[in-house]
Amino acid sequence: MFENPFESGHIKNYILLYASVVVIMILFFIATSLFHENKIIEKKLFETTQTTTTEELKEKKQLEVQEPKKRFKLLESAY
């Protein structure tokens, strides 16, 4: 029913199949390393200086306290 591959000579085919898979993997590795382009990433710089003074910020806070924004509209009559 089953033949021993060492005795029947099929071991050559198995070894060739394994070797061809390894060669294909090596070729794909070489191809990806050759055609891989490294992208140069520019460093992003953020402005750290503060454009508004503390006095302006205090004025804005006072205006917000005086005129609070209403988030919800209340109903005129209760149920």
Keywords:
single chain, 79 residues, mainly alpha, 53% helix
Summarize the structure.
The chain is mainly α. It is 53% helix and 0% strand.
Looking at the structure, what is the overall shape?
elongated
| Poorly predicted ranges | none
- What does the radius of gyration come to? 37 Å
Provide the structure class.
mainly alpha
Distance from first to last alpha carbon: 88 Å
Query: In DSSP terms, counting alpha (H) and pi (I) runs of 4 or more, how many helices?
Result: 3
Share of residues in strands: under 5%
Largest sheet: none
What is the averaged pLDDT score? 81
- List the secondary-structure elements in sequence, H or E: HHH
Tell me the total number of β-strands: 0
Textual characterization of the structure:
With 79 residues, the chain is mainly alpha-helical. The chain is 53% helix and 0% strand. It has three helices and no strands. The protein starts with a helix and ends in a 13-residue tail after the last helix. The mean pLDDT is 81.
Secondary structure elements and their pairing?
Layout: H1 5-8, H2 11-35, H3 54-66
